[in-house]
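Problem 12. The chain below contains 219 residues. Write out its predicted structure in token notation.
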Amino acid sequence: MPMQIQPKATILIVEDEGIVAADIQDRLQRMGYAVCGIAANGTQAIQMAEALRPNLVLMDIVLKGALDGIQAGDLIRGRQQLPIIYLTANSDRETIERAKLTEPFGYLLKPFDERDLETTIEVGLYKHRMEAERLRLVRELQETLRQAKTLAGLLPICAGCKKIRDDQGFWQQVEHYLQAHSNAEFSHGLCPDCMERIYPDLAESMAEETEMNSSRKEE
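Solution.
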């Protein structure tokens, strides 16, 4: 059985001219992309983007119907956070300014060649990955800060046994409380004062050994 090659990305085409849409589809497939669908108007594009979840949307700006490509792209971007690349024959300042407000990941003027198409798509996909990674890191940082804030404020601690009272009113060992509210891990030992109080003979022996080792080093 021949090995199936994974497409580089799945792309939704939004183009109301059937011949143009078929040509773009053919070009994309030759370049190794998968076309998950072709939408003929803005409303259909929004529905298909939500249902198919493509990696990227190639959006013609001039579309028949109630929504043009910029309006449809803005809605798709807001709802699904998908990268949009606009295709248009219009290079007037007003169209470009409207398109910029929707934060597209590319802008191609018709007619375009395959090299420009592939380059724009790859740059758009890369920018989208970097944006997703940045948002992930921001969320992780916010969660870390949230966890750190749980240790802020006044913590009731017993003067005798040193247990901490949590927000539920229960008393816990300090290490148990910190493990529940941070990423800290604990190991146990005895400080010199506790060693001398609990194991006086062992503490004295260790002190003598330390003193002997110091004397040898001085010699």
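Discussion. The longest helix spans residues 114-149. Students who got a different answer should revisit the alignment rule from Section 12.3.
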